[in-house]
Design goal:
Chain lengths: ~140, ~375
Amino acid sequence: MIETIAASRCPRCDTVVAPPAPFCPRHPVAMIPVGLQGIGEVVSFTTLHSPPEGFRSPLHIALVELEEGARFVCHGAETRGLKMGTTVAIEAIDNVYYFSHLGTLDRARIFWRRTGRAGDRVNAIARSLAKRVWKGKTRAEN
Amino acid sequence: MLNVWVAGAGMTRIGKRSEALPDLMAEAAHAALSAAALEEPDAIVVATMNPEEFLGDGNFASHVATHMGFANVPTLRVETATSSGAAAFYMAFAQVAAGLHRRVLVVGGEKMTHLSTPRVSELIGRSIDPYERSYGATMPALAGLITRALTAHGIGLREFSQVAVKNHANAARNPYAHFPQPVTLNAVMESRIVADPLRLLHCCPISDGAAAVVLTAEPTPVRVAGIGQGTDTLAVRHRYALTSFRATQEAAKAAYAMAGFGPERVDFAELHDAFTPFELIALEDTGLVPPGKAGRATLDGDTALDGRIPINPSGGLKARGHPLAATGIAQIVECVWQLTGGAPGRQLSGRVALAHSIGGLATNNWVSLLEARRP
């Protein structure tokens, strides 16, 4: 099961933006809602060592290009082994999008970085792991 | 359209200043007015990016005008984020060119150092797209993404570190600069990481200061040859390219079209190096060096004070400092001083100068061209 990311397309220039916007950034026309597969290529990434309030250091941010050219900003657990052009999967936990190119343990570490109640974090990890198992199963069946 | 000339220029020393912003702006304004031998302008254009949040003061055009004794002079304020100074310069240019006013004072300033660094970063970061901000994107974070993308285009740590070395060396000759001390290439390359691959000494400081110019319809030694504005999407993720700025390219195109000449006539430039890789991007976007050659030109010393095309003789945002809305005007001040022999210790001999200012993360940029009149 691959995450579907809500986006929108300009009927005039076919630009696709995520998350969806009411108007095309370059044309004064209403955009059409579309869904994109949560898989893409890393365009660039950085690690912030003094992130703004509400985020823990180090904060990994990537710019990922989804299908149809839409670019997307998301978080990650780790940039080790990441290169421009690496294919990553994107998933949403509590409406926050994460890229991942690593194994289960690394993925779990993402959520320890988030500020918030410990219970919420454990829940997030459990849901992420459940998705991982589900995805693995789907892949095996294919 | 009338010809527009620069009658006078002035600025404060940039750095950590204890004076209130209206006092800094009055200091810069009085310096420019006195250089123009003018007691009172016909109109005033004020540039401040965010006095509402940095200082808690609003209605800033009237605030500054009244503070300077110009309560009866028509005054307005212009804002395009970090390029507000250049936008105010454009507004004053338009007023004179249209024949609405004959002598217009432009004054820009910002005061930030009384706040903590995280607070200042957060306030400046509010000019970023809200969705990208919700992922912790700050100005350095987006600059870090752009810098990493540049590394795939042959611009590496050494190239954008050399920009810092050069600009600090220039600032050491500028008594108005925030950082008068030179830095070594090693010190830059080994400074702490801010937003990988950007390090601390690749980033401009938080500065206070003000700058001012007087524009007039009467001929003076320096003419405003052209001004252009260029824009792009608020969100960096909506851009077609990361390693060049459409906003700069369009601004340069418009400025050259107005001036009737191209980059080959430019002798030196003040470029917006809030992050040192941005100087390399601007060098190519303004056409001052061919595409793909900015790194090489910098390492070869072409952009040094004694090079083929000196860039940021003042020290740039990197080392002269970056008091936001003052910056676009401080660049013009440096160009005017250079064109009129008023930059002792770093004096260049050129006749045409270019100033380039970035608003937000290159969403609203300006390019201005100044030309010294033939004697």
